[in-house]
Amino acid sequence: MKYIVMDLEFNQHFNFGDSADQPGINPSLPFEVIQTGMVELDENFNVSSTLSILIKPQIYKRMHPFVEKLTGITKDMFDGEKSFPETYGTLIDFAGGNDNVFCVWGGTDVKLLHRNIAYYKLDGSKLTKRYIDVQHMATKRMKLPAGACVGLENAVKSLDIPTGAAFHNALNDALYTAAIFKALKNEEPTIETCCVEQPAKGKTRRGAARLFDVDKMLAEAEKMYGRELTKKEKSVLKRIYAMGRRNKFGYNKK
What we know:
Blueprint: E1 3-11, E2 32-41, E3 47-54, H1 65-71, H2 84-95, E4 101-104, H3 108-119, E5 130-133, H4 134-141, H5 152-158, H6 170-183, E6 191-193, E7 200-203, E8 209-212, H7 214-225, H8 231-245
Parallel strand pairs: 1-4, 4-5
Antiparallel strand pairs: 1-2, 2-3, 5-6, 7-8
């Protein structure tokens, strides 16, 4: 088994008005991978090799202002870069193999990676869906209250890991996550398997097919809270949504 620490950055829809290079939300791929950072660890949990790729977006070609500010990635930086399908072989060469396990800060990146793979109809069997949630390990080590979830930067500082490289860069965040994983190597990590969710289907009042994207709902909630949601919080939000779809909270207006 080989550990591959991974972090991804995504672009998404933003309403710029009439813009040919920024269409509406694509319900099949609301979050498009634009940067990949991967770190391979040796048997002593030391970094043995790294991979950093900028990926030219094909759907959301204009950068969401929040994403641009957070990551420092601008549209001009994609000049000469390749698309996701064109870089997929490089990802497989570095991290391919179902015996590998991704180590990630929260489980979302693995799920969204495979959603991008599925969107472009690539062979997803070449990359593992197994992962270790390093964020969950750090939260347990710090003995935070139930439902709390520590952010990457706070975890790095709490564990006295040297800083200097900017956060919200895929490779830098993967290296920070790798350092945290090494610091927690005596813990017993749980290996999970991601399930790629498809947008839920419904009907509009006019009878047209309507799509609801669970990932976007959770991402918006995380933006409101300013942190990653815990597994329990995600589960509660999904249950509330499902009950709403079944008209659980409906009543007759007097």
